[in-house]
TrEMBL record:
<keyword id="KW-0378">Hydrolase</keyword>
<feature type="transmembrane region" description="Helical">
    <location>
        <begin position="20"/>
        <end position="38"/>
    </location>
</feature>
<feature type="domain" description="Peptidase S24/S26A/S26B/S26C">
    <location>
        <begin position="37"/>
        <end position="103"/>
    </location>
</feature>
<keyword id="KW-0735">Signal-anchor</keyword>
<protein>
    <recommendedName>
        <fullName>Signal peptidase complex catalytic subunit SEC11</fullName>
        <ecNumber>3.4.21.89</ecNumber>
    </recommendedName>
</protein>
<dbReference type="GO" id="GO:0004252">
    <property type="term" value="F:serine-type endopeptidase activity"/>
</dbReference>
<comment type="function">
    <text>Catalytic component of the signal peptidase complex (SPC) which catalyzes the cleavage of N-terminal signal sequences from nascent proteins as they are translocated into the lumen of the endoplasmic reticulum. Specifically cleaves N-terminal signal peptides that contain a hydrophobic alpha-helix (h-region) shorter than 18-20 amino acids.</text>
</comment>
<dbReference type="GO" id="GO:0009003">
    <property type="term" value="F:signal peptidase activity"/>
</dbReference>
<dbReference type="InterPro" id="IPR001733">
    <property type="entry name" value="Peptidase_S26B"/>
</dbReference>
<feature type="transmembrane region" description="Helical">
    <location>
        <begin position="163"/>
        <end position="179"/>
    </location>
</feature>
<dbReference type="GO" id="GO:0005787">
    <property type="term" value="C:signal peptidase complex"/>
</dbReference>
<dbReference type="InterPro" id="IPR015927">
    <property type="entry name" value="Peptidase_S24_S26A/B/C"/>
</dbReference>
<dbReference type="GO" id="GO:0006465">
    <property type="term" value="P:signal peptide processing"/>
</dbReference>
<dbReference type="Pfam" id="PF00717">
    <property type="entry name" value="Peptidase_S24"/>
</dbReference>
<keyword id="KW-0645">Protease</keyword>
<dbReference type="InterPro" id="IPR019533">
    <property type="entry name" value="Peptidase_S26"/>
</dbReference>
<keyword id="KW-0256">Endoplasmic reticulum</keyword>
Amino acid sequence: MPNIVSEVVYTLRTMQKRQYLMQGVSLGLIVTSALIIWRTLMLVTGSESPVVVVLSGSMEPAFYRGDILFLNLGNDPIRIGEIVVFNVEGRDIPIVHRVVKVHERHHTGHLDILTKGDNNYGDDKVLYAQGQEWLNKKHIMGRSIGFLPYVGMVTIVMNDFPYIKYLLIVVLGVLVVTSKD
């Protein structure tokens, strides 16, 4: 391990300004590419967040904590049994639950939606904003169209232990700056 650190320090000391500039541009391109991919996914799926991580066990056995869900909002009406991700006023973190009731007003097209976690005893009315008994289309971020099991545990660990996130950012930054390309 000390050999790796000394090698990185040596590489940083021997780099010229032009190499630092090129490595900075490379890092910028990596970040920009990631943002472009995210924005493209947003446009294609119609969802403000096309990928989310399941943070609790409320949807077990369908989804477990750490599963990554892929979302698509689409224009089709929301139906009973679909798994949706929604935001509620006053809560920062989206919720992943199943639709258990839908009331559609045919003359206006307005939908009232009630959700429930598969592993929860009751419906989600207690999770909604005070005085709110139903979700509307504006609360829905997307519906689940696929998932990767447990891949999101990395995100959960980085949120639970922020120093790991910062350490990972520093290490990746050093690797990009010191790469020989």
